[in-house]
Specification:
Helix content: 25-40%
Strand order of the largest sheet: 1-2-4-3-5-6-7-8
Number of helices: 9
CATH superfamily of the largest domain: Alpha/Beta hydrolase fold, catalytic domain
Largest sheet: 8 strands, mixed
Radius of gyration: 18 Å
Distance between the termini: 41 Å
Shape: globular
Number of strands: 8
CATH architecture of the largest domain: 3-Layer(aba) Sandwich
Order of helices and strands: HHEEEHHEHEHEHEHEH
Strand content: 15-25%
């Protein structure tokens, strides 16, 4: 385990340290402190955490994290960031979201918040088990955000791998009047049911119904960006999907694989695009 002096606040989140435990780890003189649920003084905390029991996920305690640029006093518009398979809300923040938001605001770009939430491995949609992490986002997480100082009039979506698939699905479900933009990064797109991992789809019919290829005609009104590494195992399927989109999306293919190194390298341009 890394020394306590070297532990970052996101490392504490990764280890599941609660507010009191994190305060003990960082000490009285540390720069980080547990984030309150509302604005403190004249600003909102740059990192705010909490949880709720999700009925849509079958009563699962579901963690959320809100990242804001520093020094914000007003309600910000959100980008809902969906993690990859086996990820969680803390995984999203590990990519460097806070730092990139601060850089954008320092460069004079309009500030916005990034909201991450635990979604399990159900591909951000309903399954035959009844668990529906997509409904959790649309019907539980987003309606909660105004009390956290977030303006949900229009909402952006981004996601990585399984989350990229989810961003396409949820942005389409929310509709073009409410969805400010969709950024799908290395989206987990399966050309066949049998090529998908166990648990991704309940059956062949489920795959047919929930394939992102079905979304292609409906995505035309949405600001859309799709990025994928040229060495990514999903590159072929992503090219096939992009080929069906009219107009073509922003983003594209660049050297890289299906990994954190590629995702971190692309994050600044993607957040800047979502801020446009």
């Amino acid at each position: 385990m890394q020394p306590m002096a070297d532990m970052t606040r996101r490392a504490a989140l990764r280890l599941g340290v609660g507010a009191a435990g994190a305060a003990g780890l960082f000490g009285a003189g540390a720069a980080w402190r547990p984030a309150p649920s509302r604005a403190t003084g004249n600003f909102y905390p740059t990192l705010e955490t909490g949880s709720f029991v999700s009925a849509a996920r079958g009563g699962v305690e579901t963690n959320w994290i809100i990242a804001r640029p520093p020094g914000q006093t007003a309600a910000l518009r959100p980008v809902i960031a969906l993690h990859c398979k086996d990820g969680d809300a803390a995984w999203v923040m590990d990519l460097g979201v806070e730092e990139e938001l601060a850089k954008l605001t320092a460069a004079g770009r309009p500030p916005f918040a990034v909201v991450a939430v635990d979604g399990g491995n159900t591909y951000w949609r309903r399954h035959s088990s009844g668990e529906d992490s997509g409904a959790m986002v649309l019907n539980e997480l987003i309606p909660m955000l105004p009390e956290k100082g977030i303006d949900i009039t229009r909402v952006g979506f981004m996601g990585w791998s399984m989350g990229g698939y989810g961003a396409l699905q949820l942005g389409t479900r929310l509709g073009p009047s409410r969805t400010a933009g969709i950024c799908a990064v290395s989206p987990a797109i399966y050309m066949t049911y049998f090529g998908a991992p166990a648990g991704a789809f309940d059956s062949v019919d489920d795959w047919r119904t929930n394939s992102v290829f079905n979304l292609a005609p409906r995505l035309a009104p949405f600001p859309l960006r799709v990025d994928c590494g040229t060495a990514d195992s999903f590159a072929y399927a992503t090219k096939s999907f992009i080929g069906q989109l009219n107009p073509p999306p922003a983003g594209g293919f660049s050297p890289g694989g299906h990994d954190v190194s590629y995702w971190q390298a692309q994050l600044p341009a993607q957040l800047a695009w979502l801020d446009s």
